[in-house]
């Protein structure tokens, strides 16, 4: 590996990395928010709403992210949805992540023992309060490992944005390698970089999990 | 606006290209099952070095995006003097990547067996080979079937990435079709429909297996 090349390209690689992180954070936060809304609407919505959402989940989970991006970025303008590469990528990641997050929230809510909500109802709590004070806090704790896991998967999906010319890290590395003809080194460094990043995030995630679920273990007479 | 004609017309070439999608994901999972068994065996081995290699294998392949792995393989093979058609490189990369996930699925399935099973086998005097071939593996493989179908669905979707190293599967065929007809919306939605069709079939298979397994 020619380190001079790396030094020369450092600014654009850093900018690319910034966009990778931005895309990941955006996709995780908004995908999670949309997923939460979907899972609550599926739980409390009317039957047609649930059907539509179920179809949405099946379609998004059943098609490749790359094809979804093509539909959005190249097909969108035909129906008046004209997005630049980066916004299209951010919207695409959000849409792609939402059904997975919705399913994670659903199983998290399902894991809350029904007695909890029944007890809340019995002491006269209103339904919105039950969601806010019982279902959400308990469900989120049990959904946490899966949420962390999927947000790690999203880190890796961000490289696909390079295909629709979002200038994230992968895109900049491709650009660097076509300009310097160092394809193998560039991709090797990229692979090692992602490996490190994903290991780092998953370690952070595990620490977060042990911190947040600590109360489940420490209480005497439990488990 | 949306032209039904263009939408329907794209199914011909795309369905024909779907054979490569099925080939890459089918051979990918086959290779993944074989390699995954080896990696799983290494991960459960009593030798520290084997466990270390297995852990490294799984961590690297799960930590690096498949697209990067594909390009890495694509550029690496000629450098080390291996000249194979792109499709072979693609299948091998997809299979190697799948092996990491599959070995974890199997490790999980073996770990999920009640310990009483192997204790009972040892108690009735079974030797180590019978313990694995008659007690542990049959149950673990059956238990892992739904997860393996899930992995196959992921591979069908992941196979869209091999379009980027020049394999004419559904995604690449739809790019070509969109470039000649100038109807990207219709063509890409048709491609999405094909993937959805394949995956709904596989999901049905998965549900059937899960149902069969729920005793």
Automatic annotation (TrEMBL), chain A:
Q: Which GO terms describe its molecular function?
A: transmembrane transporter activity
Q: Would you tell me the Gene Ontology cellular component terms?
A: ATP-binding cassette (ABC) transporter complex
This protein's encoding gene: yecS_1
**InterPro entries for the chain:** AA_ABC_transptr_permease_3TM (IPR010065), ArtM/GltK/GlnP/TcyL/YhdX-like (IPR043429), MetI-like (IPR000515), MetI-like_sf (IPR035906)
List, alphabetically, the Pfam families matched. BPD_transp_1 (PF00528)
Name the protein family. Belongs to the binding-protein-dependent transport system permease family. HisMQ subfamily.
Q: Which residues form the ABC transmembrane type-1 domain?
A: 13-202
Organism in which the protein naturally occurs? Jannaschia rubra
**Keywords noted in UniProt:** Amino-acid transport, Cell membrane, Membrane, Transmembrane, Transmembrane helix, Transport
Could you name the domain of life of the organism this protein comes from? Answer: Bacteria
Q: Where in the cell is it found?
A: Cell inner membrane; Cell membrane
Spell out where the chain crosses the membrane: 12-41, 134-154, 180-201
Family matches, as PANTHER family: L-CYSTINE TRANSPORT SYSTEM PERMEASE PROTEIN TCYL, MEMBRANE COMPONENT OF AMINO ACID ABC TRANSPORTER
Provide the protein name.
Inner membrane amino-acid ABC transporter permease protein YecS
UniProtKB/TrEMBL annotation, chain B:
Q: Which family does it belong to?
A: Belongs to the binding-protein-dependent transport system permease family. HisMQ subfamily.
Alphabetical list of NCBIfam families matching this protein: HEQRo_perm_3TM
Tell me which PANTHER family the record gives.
GLUTAMINE TRANSPORT SYSTEM PERMEASE PROTEIN GLNP, MEMBRANE COMPONENT OF AMINO ACID ABC TRANSPORTER
The GO terms this record gives for MF are: transmembrane transporter activity
Q: Which GO terms describe its cellular component?
A: ATP-binding cassette (ABC) transporter complex
Q: Where in the cell is it found?
A: Cell inner membrane; Cell membrane
Q: What does this protein do?
A: Part of the binding-protein-dependent transport system for glutamine; probably responsible for the translocation of the substrate across the membrane.
Q: What name goes with this protein? A: Inner membrane amino-acid ABC transporter permease protein YecS
Give the gene symbol: yecS_2
Its source organism is: Jannaschia rubra
Q: Which InterPro entries match?
A: AA_ABC_transptr_permease_3TM (IPR010065), ArtM/GltK/GlnP/TcyL/YhdX-like (IPR043429), MetI-like (IPR000515), MetI-like_sf (IPR035906)
Q: Which UniProt keywords are present, listed alphabetically?
A: Amino-acid transport, Cell membrane, Membrane, Transmembrane, Transmembrane helix, Transport
Q: Where in this chain does the record put each ABC transmembrane type-1 domain?
A: 18-206
* Membrane topology of this protein: Multi-pass membrane protein
Q: Does the keyword Flavoprotein apply?
A: no
């Amino acid at each position: 590996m020619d380190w001079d090349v790396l030094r020369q390209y450092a600014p654009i690689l850093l900018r690319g990395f910034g966009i990778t992180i931005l895309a990941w954070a955006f996709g995780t936060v908004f995908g999670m928010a949309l997923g939460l809304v979907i899972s609550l609407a599926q739980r409390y919505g009317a039957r047609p709403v649930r059907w539509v959402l179920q179809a949405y989940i099946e379609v998004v989970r059943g098609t490749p992210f790359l094809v979804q991006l093509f539909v959005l970025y190249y097909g969108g303008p035909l129906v008046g949805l004209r997005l630049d590469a980066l916004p299209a990528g951010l919207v695409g990641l959000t849409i792609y992540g939402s059904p997975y997050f919705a399913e994670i929230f659903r199983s998290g809510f399902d894991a809350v023992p029904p007695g909890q909500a029944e007890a809340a109802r019995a002491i006269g709590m209103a339904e919105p309060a039950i969601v806010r004070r019982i279902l959400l806090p308990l469900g989120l704790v049990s959904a946490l490992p899966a949420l962390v896991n999927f947000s790690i998967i999203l880190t890796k999906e961000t490289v696909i944005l390079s295909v629709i010319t979002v200038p994230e890290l992968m895109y900049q590395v491709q650009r660097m390698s076509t300009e310097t003809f160092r394809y193998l080194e560039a991709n090797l460094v990229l692979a090692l970089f992602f490996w490190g990043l994903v290991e780092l995030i998953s370690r952070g995630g595990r620490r977060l999990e042990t911190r947040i679920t600590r109360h489940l273990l420490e209480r005497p007479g439990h488990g | 606006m949306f032209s039904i004609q263009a939408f329907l017309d794209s199914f011909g070439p795309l369905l024909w290209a779907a054979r490569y999608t099925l080939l890459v994901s089918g051979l990918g999972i086959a290779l993944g099952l074989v390699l995954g068994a080896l990696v799983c065996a290494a991960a459960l081995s009593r030798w520290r070095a084997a466990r270390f290699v297995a852990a490294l294998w799984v961590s690297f392949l799960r930590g690096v995006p498949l697209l990067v792995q594909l390009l890495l393989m694509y550029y690496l093979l000629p450098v080390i003097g291996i000249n194979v058609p792109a499709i072979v490189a693609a299948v091998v990369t997809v299979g190697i990547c799948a092996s990491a996930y599959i070995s974890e699925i199997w490790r999980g399935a073996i770990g999920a067996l009640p310990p009483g099973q192997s204790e009972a086998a040892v108690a009735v005097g079974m030797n180590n080979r019978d313990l694995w071939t008659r007690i542990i593996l049959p149950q673990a493989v059956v238990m892992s079937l739904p997860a393996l179908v899930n992995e196959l669905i992921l591979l069908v979707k992941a196979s869209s990435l091999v379009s980027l190293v020049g394999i004419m599967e559904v995604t690449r065929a739809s790019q070509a079709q969109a470039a000649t007809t100038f109807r990207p919306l219709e063509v890409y939605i048709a491609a999405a429909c094909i993937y959805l069709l394949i995956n709904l079939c596989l999901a049905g298979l998965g549900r059937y297996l899960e149902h069969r397994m729920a005793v």
